[in-house]
Specification:
2 copies of one chain form a homodimer. By secondary structure, the first copy, chain A, is of the alpha/beta class. Helix content of chain A is about 40%, strand content about 15%. Chain A is elongated. Chain B binds a DNA duplex (16 and 16 nucleotides) through α2 and α4.
Chain lengths: ~375, ~375
DNA sequence: TTGAAAGCGATACCAA
DNA sequence: TTGGTATCGCTTTCAA
């Protein structure tokens, strides 16, 4: 009875897959290119370790109920054979073990691309340890992003999604809500969240209020903000916070939209050309702040004496301009880690609503980094 | 023997999976969170369309041997039910239908992030039509990237890989060669390619030679290039091409490495501070060119009269600096499309070496975009 | 042109 | 603690 134990339905004593031989092309589905080596399966590992496949699976997944010696032997054998569980097979039973971030990559968002990858890098570190992978994809518009997520959810390709750069009236929210898919919203606190969602809030509102106080303390009376893409909730939130702090000090505030570098340049141009231009300009990101510096230079407006500039997002480039840019710190790494943790939370929340994890985590921006682009206004 | 064929060992006549009801929680693997709606499977579609699952599969995949009416009905029903084939199940038989690009994302590569996503966006358009998806992941070093690809290959997660930013002695090459996995190499012609690889070559060598001629024609006699990360084959190739063209005209050439914005700034600083500094500087990317402009301004070196600057990679920012930057075009979109096509080629090359597809495609850079940062040198 | 059913490679239940 | 095996949802022979 011991030797009959193999589940080989076609009477085939000692010949089919055994033998140690390497069948050029296993009977079933053609292995995609790369031919040659047949990759080992759990059966190979089980046989080599002299146990059943169940034990291999248990050992691999660190479940209890496997003798320590057995576990070690199995893991060693698996390692020797270079075996890793096939994602497809695993997903088929247990559901997908990956999540996706679909970056809305319209031309204007160029500078955000780098930080998206930084965010993912940080998140992946957290996720790796839990065996979850996070993939990045791109879409031209929020609608396309929503479409992709819908499709991939239907295909059971991903177990959840990460959403960044929320817009007002964002198509992705509706899509995710209807699927309904676990999701992590990055950046905004104002989104009503179903239990399957978590959000990682970047507290730039506080930081922008600080910017307002900072500029007020310096003595500025006319401040403008050059905001990013129209619908972005983040830019609106920042503008509101800034406006609030300034109005409290009785300071004149103006917001101008400059979506994408070209339009930003145009907007700054007309803003600074006017007779009584503001004495301080706050931008959303580092690239736009660079544009402001350049336009000011062209108009012969001296920074920081005639014009103070604050970059809304700090980056390496902010240190290298002349003058270097005062900026709001952007803690991508901490944000990414928080995203990773939140994602693990939603993915594990297997329909267990009693989960104690907070639906929202806030990452503080930290204090303004003051550099050379800000000063008291020229008292002319 | 015919009726016994079903491997249902527990006698279970007419009760197991049939019945049409929608079990709240199918007996098998717990469906990951999101509970509620059970997503339809091919069986549901087959039943609703009154055909077998085989027909549904054939219809979906556009194989011949299905009556046109049947095909249409099946597709309509599938659409009504919102059915999409589960990736896991499909992959299990047919192999993975996705490929990955692992971006090596060291701090210095910040500016390349945007173009990586642009590349992927363009490639995805081509791939989508063929039902292939391309995912982006990040890794801190080439070794980590190699590690990830090895693992994902063992897990049958991806059918192939896209490799960008090749380095000399690149760990990824060795890893991929040993797997052996289908791959598309972006950017370099010098890599010996196994049959399962294709390469998309960006012909910046020709473009950089043109830059050399252009500067020679303007009358420059001392030219320097600020190269990117040490090991990058692309930057080396560019430097070589530039050096070649310049030496042909008997012009002095010097290459300085400035990996990352900070070191780039330092390198430019010492380069321009020397008594007899070059009259023209060529950089690898747009960001570094911006740094050159800034350093020059600080040292009161007038661009373009006392110093000409050429950006090795054109980008939106090059138009907005003062002066605007003369640059080598970077046709990301065409590169991405080529990558998509090449990827389809390697993935389809199911161990069929008689495939007629060229192992390498070259994308031309196009003519130098001359803007305001270049001029004849000051004849002082 | 269609249907029946054998896998693909894991996980997880139930018995031993 | 371990083994046997049904099951996940497709694709793909092989017969009808």
């Amino acid at each position: 009875m011991v030797s009959t134990a193999r589940p080989n339905h076609h009477e085939d004593p000692d010949n089919s897959t055994g033998k140690g031989g390497i069948p050029a092309s296993p009977r079933g589905g053609r292995p995609r290119s790369g031919e040659g080596k047949r990759r080992p399966t759990i059966v190979d590992v089980a046989r080599a370790a002299g146990v059943s496949t169940a034990v291999v699976s248990y050992a691999l997944n660190g479940r209890r109920g496997v003798a320590e010696v057995t576990r070690e032997r199995v893991l060693r054998v698996a390692d020797e054979l270079g075996w890793r569980p096939a994602t497809a097979a695993r997903s088929l039973r247990a559901g997908p073990g990956a999540a996706a971030l679909v970056a809305v990559h319209d031309g204007a968002a160029g500078s955000r691309a780098a930080s998206t990858l930084d965010l993912v890098t940080a998140a992946s570190e957290v996720l790796d340890d839990a065996g979850v992978t996070l993939a990045v994809h791109t879409a031209g518009t929020v609608e396309q992003a929503a479409h992709l997520m819908r499709r991939w959810w239907a295909e059971r390709r991903y177990a959840g999604f990460v959403v960044t750069g929320l817009r007002s009236d964002d198509a992705r929210l509706a899509a995710l809500r209807h699927l309904p898919a676990p999701a992590v919203m990055v950046g905004d606190p104002s989104v009503p969240a179903p239990p399957a969602w978590r959000s990682v809030v970047f507290d730039d509102a506080t930081a922008f209020a600080q910017v307002g106080e900072f500029l007020a303390d310096l003595g500025h009376r006319r401040v403008a903000m050059l905001t990013g893409a129209e619908g972005l909730l983040a830019t609106r939130r920042r503008a509101t916070a800034l406006a609030g702090a300034l109005s409290k000090a009785g300071i004149d505030f103006d917001a101008v939209t400059g979506d994408g570098v070209d339009r930003a340049a145009a907007a700054v141009g007309s803003l600074l050309s006017s007779g009584s231009h503001p004495t301080a300009v706050v931008t959303d990101d580092d690239v736009t702040a660079g544009v402001v510096l350049d336009v000011a230079r062209r108009l012969e407006i001296a920074v920081p004496w005639q014009l103070s500039v604050v970059a809304g997002t700090d980056a390496a480039a902010c240190r290298l301009t002349t003058p270097s840019l005062t900026a709001v710190p952007y803690p991508v790494e901490r944000l990414g880690q928080a995203v990773g943790q939140a994602l693990l939370g939603v993915l594990r929340a297997d329909g267990a609503p009693n989960e104690k994890a907070p639906p929202s985590v806030t990452v503080a921006a930290g204090g303004l980094v003051v550099r050379g682009s800000t000063a008291p206004p020229d008292p002319r």
